[in-house]
Design goal:
The protein is of the alpha+beta class. About 25% of the residues lie in helices and about 25% in strands.
């Protein structure tokens, strides 16, 4: 109608002609818009939070938009997110409209949920804010920081030392001019494009940032979509008209169907692919094939929903056998001949799917650089030549951490080629030490101070001498990592001596780790397995036994391990003075196993109450103890006369604690100097 009035049309035919032209123009714009949105499907229905998962304290639907809000009375302690539960996305385009009043927000993509924290997300973020600086940038939420400022075209890389770098390689526009196109406290259109490892952000049709992620250690090929509500001053953010386009046009898989597929997948046994390296050191050492077969047999007979398969000779001839694995176990010679060196890209793709990885003994060693960086990402650490060392020594693992891998594992001591001074992620970020001990000085120097072995790639170096001899830093011989992609990794430096698989604790720890990296639930008493005989250990070895081989000696060693594990627990020989010092220094905790009635009459200061009646109750889930009693400390148990302290100590020892039952009762401990708790 405005067009007609502008041209002052008076004739009916002219008016119809102009009207027809106007309709055609309108149709043209409709067709254009339709073409532009072809393949996009809505992932928000405009009415409910169906398929979205967030803290209802902060998220709601208001005026047809997903709305997140904090107030002075209802702040969030940390950044919180609402997560789209339609599945992971890889390559995609996302379009939405947003409005923000105060604060900062963002659109997470190819992201991950932070383990152990509800509605906390990390990964790539298309940032925006109420201010004038950050809208349109690419930010790594808990994931390397700012990856491209507004107006920048960047490339993400690692330098020769493995340090992360953001390289500015070009420009997509002037930041100030881009900001002028963004409407304050009004609706804006955000467009995110992820293709391969190239990411593009646009706001209101204006390109704001562009980035190529060539950081093979950290980059992500797929992940979740989420929306952010930022911690800090009160704010309000809204999102509407949220649409997703995938290469196959299937932008929004039905959530119920996804759940059904996930349930079906969960019902299927988790496949564990064990890769055994080629024959190596000789009889009884580096028995990759025999070791993998022993572990696979134990897993397949454990009663757990797992299916273990062994592939011998190194990298599988048909690598497609790894595609459906929940975790990959590599037990092979490493270094420059590591089977994985030539397959980093293939493995990166598998790891980004969330597949786990276990590296045993020599398989933890890879060359510094591309392979080393990959292992830092996959498992959190590796053996680095001229930094790590490989002596044979007896390690004593007296205390184990509160971790599923340590479930049911008792403290143990065993001789092996325990590599140590591993190269870990900086500040052990995301890494949990599992087996820790301070190696003896004789692994590095002789009594006269001369080197036990000369400096070399594996034997000795100034770095390790400083750490162990001067700074006396305990070393980690096994460790676990939970990766941002949801996958899990485990490194274990033992395994040179084949007979050590006959040690129940040694074997259980590795079986637990395999199940854990496969995403399985480790039983509270650990993965069960039958004791191994000499005949079991002799089977499937790559070499025939030498003429002087004495199986009776091996059997005696197995019997000794079994005797030590079945020994009766005794009262500790620690004096009251030692007990008091250990408690005061924080090296130990005191567990009172008496009844509540006895405790009500008086108890010792800072003692933990864990009645023996509860520990011995068949209905009590003993894994709950792990939440009450720290497993990285000495545990002194006490009662009235010492008897119940022994019974409780036996149970706690089975859970992996370093337990020292006290014979003195409550009254005697008070008289020895331990303080009574205030009423």
């Amino acid at each position: 109608m405005q067009l007609l009035s502008v041209h002052r049309v008076t004739s009916r035919s002219a008016a119809l002609a102009v009207l027809f032209a106007a309709v055609l123009c309108g149709l043209g714009s409709v067709v254009s818009a339709s073409e532009e949105d072809k393949g996009f499907e809505p992932i928000f229905d405009g009415e409910s939070l169906k398929d979205w998962d967030g803290n209802e304290t902060f998220w709601r639907v208001e005026d047809g938009a997903i709305t997140g809000q904090t107030t002075p009375e209802n702040p969030t302690k940390g950044n919180t997110f609402i997560i789209w539960r339609g599945g992971d996305v890889g390559d995609f385009e996302l379009k939405l409209e947003y409005r923000i009043v105060a604060g900062n927000s963002g659109i997470q993509y190819r992201s991950f949920e932070v383990p152990g924290k509800e509605w906390v997300v990390g990964g790539y973020q298309a940032d925006f804010e109420a201010g004038d600086t950050y809208s349109g940038i690419l930010y790594g939420e808990g994931f390397r920081g700012i990856l491209a400022n507004r107006g920048q075209k960047t490339e993400l890389v690692r330098d020769a030392d493995g340090k992360f770098q953001v390289k500015v390689v070009g420009s997509v526009g002037n930041s100030r001019e881009i900001q002028e196109k963004i409407r304050k406290e009004d609706w804006n259109k955000y467009h995110v494009i992820a293709k391969g490892f190239h990411f593009t952000h646009l706001i209101n049709g204006v390109k704001t940032a562009e980035c190529t992620d060539n950081d093979e250690r950290e980059r992500r090929a797929k992940g979740i979509i989420a929306l952010q509500l930022h911690a800090g001053p009160p704010m309000k953010v809204q999102f509407r008209n949220i649409r997703l386009k995938r290469p196959d046009g299937d932008a929004a898989k039905d959530t119920a169907a996804n759940s059904r597929r996930a349930e079906a997948s969960a019902a299927e046994p988790k496949k564990i692919a064990l890769i055994a390296g080629k024959p190596s050191h000789g009889y009884g050492a580096h028995e990759h094939r025999a070791g993998c077969l022993l572990l696979a047999k134990a897993l397949n007979e454990s009663g757990l929903p797992v299916r273990a398969e062994v592939y011998t000779g190194g990298w599988p001839e048909d690598p497609s056998v790894l595609e459906d694995a929940a975790t990959i176990v590599i037990y092979a010679d490493g270094g420059g001949g590591h089977p994985f060196n030539a397959h980093i890209d293939e493995l990166n793709r598998l790891m980004q799917k969330g597949i786990g990885l276990v590296a045993i003994h020599y398989a933890v060693e890879v060359p510094k650089g591309r392979s080393g960086d990959a292992f830092l990402g996959w498992t959190g650490g590796y053996f680095e030549a001229n930094w790590s060392v490989n002596p044979h020594w007896t390690a004593a693992y007296k205390r184990l951490p509160q971790h599923p891998i340590a479930n049911g594992v008792r403290p143990f001591s065993i001789h092996d080629e325990w590599y140590y001074h591993m190269r870990f992620r900086e500040d052990l970020e995301g890494v949990t030490p599992i087996l820790t001990d301070l190696p003896p000085a004789n692994t590095l120097v002789k009594p006269d101070g001369s080197l036990a072995r000369p400096d070399g790639g594996h034997s000795n170096n100034p770095h390790v001498r400083q750490a162990v001899l001067e700074e006396r830093q305990p070393q980690h011989m096994a460790w676990a990592r939970e990766r941002p992609d949801g996958g899990r990794g485990f490194g274990f430096t033992g395994g040179h001596v084949h007979w050590n698989w006959g040690n129940d604790q040694f074997r259980k720890l590795v079986l637990n780790a395999i199940v854990w990296t496969a995403g399985g639930d480790v039983p509270k008493n650990g993965v069960p397995s039958k004791p191994l005989s000499v005949e079991d250990l002799m089977a499937n070895q790559d070499y025939p036994p030498p003429e002087n081989f004495n199986p009776a000696r091996i059997q005696e060693m197995l019997d000794q391990w079994n005797r030590s594990e079945s020994r009766e627990l005794e009262h500790t020989g620690d004096s009251p003075e030692v007990v008091r010092k250990n408690l005061e220094s924080g090296k130990a905790v005191l567990v009172d196993v008496r009844s509540q009635e006895e405790r009500d009459e008086g108890c010792l200061k800072e003692s933990i109450h864990l009645p023996i009646t509860r520990l011995e109750d068949d209905e009590f889930d003993r894994s709950n103890v792990l939440e009450i009693v720290p497993r990285d400390k000495i545990v002194y148990t006490h009662c009235r006369a010492g008897g119940r302290a022994l019974r409780a100590g036996k149970i706690l020892e089975e859970l992996g604690y370093d337990v020292r039952p006290l014979k003195p009762g409550y009254e005697e401990l008070r008289e020895s100097g331990l303080e009574k708790a205030e009423e």
